[in-house]
Amino acid sequence: MIDMELGAVQERFADIVWAHEPVASGELVKLCREELNWKKPTTYTVLRRLCEKGLFRNEGGVVSALISRDAFYASKSRQVVEESFHGSLPAFVAAFTAGHKLTEEEAAAIQRLIDAARREE
């Protein structure tokens, strides 16, 4: 099972990996130096931790994802709904839209998602 708990810095790092994978670990060090102002040991420490969490692998000096960015955030979203709203998607949507009027485009996009989910049943 993948540990979905990432700090903000780990999420930024993960986004760099997802954007460039598969990426040579040396190239990843350069990217992290440019984008995060990290030194090599910091990059490898965070990479090791995210490999231990099951997000990435580093084999032969090439870093690749074990789970896609979309799959990770979808799973993380489901976890939030389960933990914070007792699994109730309507309760989540109500909380998310409280005090925020949906635009016609947003409402149409949500309706398309609902329609697609119904077709999958």
Description:
The protein is mainly alpha-helical and 121 residues long. The protein folds into two domains: 8-69, Winged helix-like DNA-binding domain superfamily/Winged helix DNA-binding domain (Arc Repressor Mutant, subunit A), CATH 1.10.10.10; 88-121. Helices cover 67% and strands 8% of the residues. It contains six helices and three strands, in the order αβααββααα. Strands 1-3-2 form a three-stranded antiparallel sheet. Strand 2 (56-59) and strand 3 form a beta hairpin. The longest helix has 17 residues, at 69-85. It is elongated and about 45 Å long. The chain starts with 7 loop residues before the first helix and ends with a helix.
